Amino acid sequence: MKIVYAKKFVKKFSKLDSKLQKKVYGAIVNIPKGDIKRLSGKRTPPIYRLRVSTYRLLFNLEDDLLKILLIDSRGDVYKNIDK
Question: How many CA atoms lie within 13 A of 14 on its CB side?
Answer without folding.
Answer: 7
